[in-house]
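Weekly structure sync, notes
Attendees: PL (lead), two postdocs, one rotation student
Agenda item 3: pending single-chain targets
PL asked that the sequence for the first pending target be pasted directly into the notes so everyone works from the same version. It is reproduced below exactly as submitted, 289 residues in total.
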Amino acid sequence: MFRSGYGDEVSQTSPEQTGTEQRCVMFVHAHPDDETTKGGGTAAWLAATGVRTVLVVCTDGGAGGVTDHALLGGRSLAEVRSDELAAAAAIMGFDVVHELGYADSGSESEVPQGFASQPIAPMVDQLTDLIEVERPDVVVTYDPEYAANHPDHLRCHEISAAAFAQTTTDAGGPRKLYGSRFFSRRRVQAMHDWTVVHGLESPYERALEKLPDERFTTRIAIGEHAVTARNALREHQTQIAHDHRWFYTIPDADFAHVYPWEEFELLAVAPGFTLPMPADVESDLFTSL
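Predicted structure, written out during the meeting:
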C-alpha cells in the first residue's frame, strides 16, 4: 500500500477471474500512442495480472506532427509510427495488436479520405469481426465527452459502441463497454498540485479550466503500471519529445504516486445483463461478470 499525492490510500487487487477461465479485454484506440495515454496503465496492469489484452488501432497516425524528421529515416510517418506502436505494445504486454490502417484524419479533419470521413458501416463490420474472433469480456474505447475534441476519437467511440451492440447477443460476446476518461480533472489537479509543491511552472493549470465535470463509474488502481505506460509512450518519439512538459514534468520516481488511478465510465452492458448498483465506484472492469 502507498499513499498518493492526492491524499488517498491505494491498494491494488487482481482483477476478478472465474475459475481457470482467462479474461480478455479489447482496447480500441484511434491512433498509435493513444494506447499509452488513454487507459494505458490499466492495460499494462491487466496484462501483468494474466488478463489477455487485445489492442485495436484504427488509423495509421500519418497526419501527426514529427518531433524530429531524422527519426523517419526516409520512411513515411505511418510506417515509423507502426514500428513505434509495436515497441510500445510489447512494453505494455498486449497479447495481440490489430492495425486497421485507416488514414489519420488530422485534428481538424483536414485529410479528405481520413478515418472520420469514411462510411461507418464497413468499419463497424470490421470491428465486429475482430470482436467475434477475439471474444473479449469487456471492450474499452473513449468516453464520448472526452472524444469530442478529435474527429478520429469520436469515430472510434462510435464504431466501438455499434460493434459492441452487434455482438452482445452472441454467446460469449462482450458484456461491458467502457469509455476511458483520460486526464480526468482529479488526475490533472494532482499533477498540477505536484508542480506547485515543487516550485515549478505548471503546464496543467490552463487545462483545469476546460476539463469536463468529474464523472466516472470505475477507478482502477494502476500503481507502478503508470510508469509502464509512460515507458511505452517514450517509444512514440516522433510524436512526443522526451522533454515534453505535459507528459514528463513529473519524474518517474514520483509519477506513479501522484495519481495512481485511471477512470472509466461504464457506457453499456449486454442486453439482459443486470448489474447490481455498486455501493461505491467499481475498482475492476470485471465487476459482476
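Discussion points:
- DSSP finds eleven helices and nine strands in the chain.
- The radius of gyration is 18 Å.
Action: rotation student to compare against the earlier draft before next sync.
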